[in-house]
Write a structure and sequence with these properties.
mainly alpha, two-stranded antiparallel ribbon, 18 helices
Length: about 450
């Protein structure tokens, strides 16, 4: 059934799609990967790979969704009826179900930090011990995860326009405003230029084969491609909208947030003489220590955690939406029921991940905690497989004339750009994804 809802404006779609892309990958994972992978040289590679791999994949998903006006599973079935290609959509639904189950756990940690910061309970505590207590407390971890899911469910249940689009219209501008505040404060610290130099001045001697692969993987993970979320979001887009311009805006916003994240974090880290290689603990352990040593640090830490929450929520909306849309099949009256059913099931599935740093810390799957095992399955297997299948599907199953029509190709320059896009999608993206996939499994 054709979607009964549409984005009210192009800006609403761009903010929602950018919100889906700008999440933990851009604000949590990106800074610590940059810090451990060579700084400016990594950022430059990430930018190039985003344009050469992430953008072509994003446009491919946009074409699938907008051309069919169907949610993910039905879109693939409509384009390739009587085949197994619709399993790309089903894979995306399953991936988002599992992804949100542990993503919501991190969302709960952020809510816990906001509560502790707002109530003044973070002062005077060793931050590594504080983080350990937050993630190991079973009632606190599960309760915060539930609260995060309830917020996500409430927004998605309200619908595309009244829920997702309306929320993103407030959350995304607020996110950029908060980032600007933090960035200005960070850049005015003594010694900040050393952090700027680390982040923006490429030193290719610091690059390793592993960091190049990280940059390649981050380039398509950071845009939410590979799980067909953008297929569902673009299905709510009118035929008159320019997909290339919209995709360019989303990629631009994503790169801008990555730039802001680096300029907000690394100058502050270097200002205090700390190392930027803290890994995943950079935001939860090192940054609170950084903010503690600057005027009004508690306030700026609270601002950062609110920003972090906004980015996490906007991504969570898109993960729940693809599942709800695949079940409701465009019928708005069924949306609320499925939002609550699916959302609560995701919460239940995420409880083992929430407990995996405390009472279930002894429970392992192939030597990994439940949380880490779920993360590995999604990030290292399901998302690369989904991205590869989409890169193969678009040039194989969609006619060249239809692709050109959807991308509004009408000039000689447009035809040349179209040929480059198709080349990147057909050959470069699949090859890059295979390399990243093999590397992530430790086979390279």
């Amino acid at each position: 059934m054709k979607q009964s809802e549409q984005w009210t404006t192009r800006l609403g779609f761009i903010l929602a799609a950018a919100g889906s892309a700008i999440g933990l990958g851009a604000i949590w994972k990106f800074p610590y990967v940059v810090g451990t992978s060579g700084g400016g040289a990594f950022f430059l590679l990430f930018l190039l790979f985003t344009l050469a791999i992430g953008l072509p994949l994003l446009l491919g998903e946009f074409i699938i969704g907008r051309s069919t006006q169907r949610e993910a599973v039905s879109a693939y079935r409509m384009i390739a009826p009587g085949t197994a290609w619709h399993w790309i959509g089903r894979l995306g639904v399953c991936t988002c179900f599992l992804l949100l189950s542990f993503y919501s756990v991190v969302g709960g940690w952020i809510l816990s930090y906001i509560f502790l910061g707002a109530s003044g309970q973070m002062k005077g505590q060793p931050y590594d011990q504080l983080f350990g207590n937050v993630i190991a407390n079973p009632l606190g971890a599960v309760g915060a995860q539930l609260l995060f899911m309830l917020i996500t469910i409430w927004v998605v249940a309200r619908g595309v326009q009244a829920g997702i689009e309306a929320a993103n219209k407030y959350l995304m501008p607020a996110l950029f405003l908060l980032f600007l505040v933090l960035m200005v404060r960070s850049l005015t610290l003594d010694g900040a230029l050393q952090g700027v130099s680390f982040f923006l001045m490429p030193d290719f001697s610091k690059l390793t084969g592993e960091s190049i692969l990280y940059a390649m993987g981050q380039s398509f993970f950071s845009l939410s491609v590979g799980v067909s979320v953008m297929v569902t979001y673009s299905s709510y887009l009118g035929k008159q909208e320019n997909l290339v311009r919209s995709a360019g805006s989303i990629v631009g916003l994503n790169l801008l947030v990555s730039l802001f994240a680096g300029l907000a974090i690394f100058p502050a880290v270097f200002s205090l003489g700390l190392e930027p290689t803290a890994g995943p603990g950079l935001l939860f352990i090192m940054l609170p220590s950084v903010f503690e040593h600057i005027p009004f640090g508690s306030l700026f830490l609270l601002v950062f955690m609110v920003l972090f929450l906004f980015a996490t929520l906007t991504s969570a909306f898109s993960m729940l939406e693809i599942i709800v849309a695949s079940l409701s099949k465009g019928e708005a009256r069924r949306r609320k029921r499925y939002s609550w059913i699916v959302g609560l099931l995701i919460f239940l599935l995420g409880i083992p991940s929430a407990l995996s740093f405390g009472v279930w810390s002894e429970v392992t799957i192939l030597g990994k905690s439940v949380f880490d095992a779920a993360d590995f399955l999604v990030s290292n297997i399901l998302m690369p497989v989904g991205a590869f299948l989409i890169a193969v599907f678009v040039p194989l199953r969609l006619k060249r004339e239809m692709l050109m029509r959807e991308l509004q190709v009408s000039t000689n320059w447009g035809r040349r750009a179209f040929a480059v896009w198709l080349l990147l999608l057909r050959y470069v993206a699949p090859f890059a994804i295979i390399i990243v996939f093999i590397s992530s499994l430790g086979l390279l």
